[in-house]
Specification:
Blueprint (H helix, E strand, L loop, with lengths): L5 E6 L23 E6 L7 H14 L7 E6 L2 E7 L7 E4 H8 L16 H11 L3 H21 L10 E6 L4 E5 L15 H9 L3 H7 L16 H11 L1 H9 L6 H8 L9 H22 L1
Antiparallel strand pairs: 1-2, 2-4, 3-4, 5-6, 6-7
Helix pairs in contact: 2-3, 3-4, 4-7, 4-8, 4-10, 5-10, 7-8, 7-10, 9-10
The structure holds adenosine-5'-diphosphate (ADP) and magnesium ion.
The site of adenosine-5'-diphosphate (ADP) has 19 residues, from strand 2 and strand 4.
Amino acid sequence: MGSKQKFWYSSPEQQGSPEQQGSPEQQGSPEQQGRSWLFKYPQPNTGEHWAEKIAAEIAGLLRIPHAKVELAEFQGKRGSVTESFARGGRELIHGNQMLARVIHGYDPGRKFHQSSHTLANIWQVMGRVFAESEGARRAKLRISEYLVLDALIGNTDRHHENWGLLRRRLKDRWKGFVAPTFDHASSLGRELRDERRDGLMAENRVGDYAERGRGALYWSEDEQRGPSPLELVRRAFHEHPSFFRPALAKLEKLDNYTVAELVDRVPTEWMSPSARRFAMALMGSNLERLQELCR
Ligand SMILES: Nc1ncnc2c1ncn2[C@@H]1O[C@H](COP(=O)(O)OP(=O)(O)O)[C@@H](O)[C@H]1O
Ligand SMILES: [Mg+2]
C-alpha cells in the first residue's frame, strides 16, 4: 500500500527502534510478535518524516484520534515510524474498498485523478456501512475532523487509501469505527527547498501557497482537480455545518504560540530554520482562515 519505501517491523516492547530489531528479514511475521511499527523513508530532499511527526502531534493537541508517530533512524537513514492501530483483532478497511462496494462504477485501483473520491460519496458509504444512524453520524464527524486537520497542516494527500475504518468481528456482527488518521507526510511544505520557503515568506505569499495546493479529495465528480484542503473545508462547512462546525471548534484550543512550541521540539539537525519558520507560518495562516469561517 502507498507509494513510498517502507517496512513493517515488530517491537516486543511498547516502543522500540528498528536498530534494535535487526533487519526485517530476520524476524517472523510482525503480527506474531509485539507491537507492529511501520518505518517510512522520506522522499529524498523532503521533510516527510518531520511533517509526519508534527502532524501527529498537532492531531494530539486537537484531540483528534491519530496514529502514533516517532522520528526514527534505520541503518543511518532518517525516517519516521508509526505504530499499527490494526491490532487486537481489528482490521483496516480502506476508503477505496468501501467506495467500490457502495458507489456504482468506482475504480478502487485508480491512483490519480480519482474524482469520484468526493465527500458526498464518502457520506454515502457511511450511511451504508453503519447499521445505526448514530454510527454513521459519529463517523462523519470524525472524518470532518480529519479534513479540518488536513486544512490546518496543508495535507494534500487524503486519497482513498489514506483513511479507512477499523472493524472487528463480534459473535454475530462487525463492530467498526473510523480508523485513527494516518499518513500526513505530504503536508507542512515538506517538498519545498529553503530558498522557496524564504521567498514565499518574504513576499507574504504563504497563504497563496496553501490555496494553490490540490487535495486528493474532490468536491464534485465533474471537477478536473481537487480543491485545496482549505477550500474543501470552506465548501463542506457551508454544506454540512452540523459536522464541520464542531470539527472547526477543535481549533479553538490552538494558537500560534502553541504551534511554534510544538514545531520547535523537532531536533535541530532534522529540520532547517527555514522549514520550521515556514511550517509555523503555514499553520498560522491556515488557522486564521479556518477560524474566520466560524465568525
Ligand atoms: N499506524 C498504522 N496502523 C495500521 N496501518 C497503517 C498505519 N499507517 C499506515 N498503515 C497502512 O500502511 C499503508 C501505507 O502507509 P502510509 O503511511 O499511507 O504510507 P505511504 O506514505 O507510502 O502512503 C496505509 O495505506 C495503511 O494501509
Ligand atoms: Mg498512504
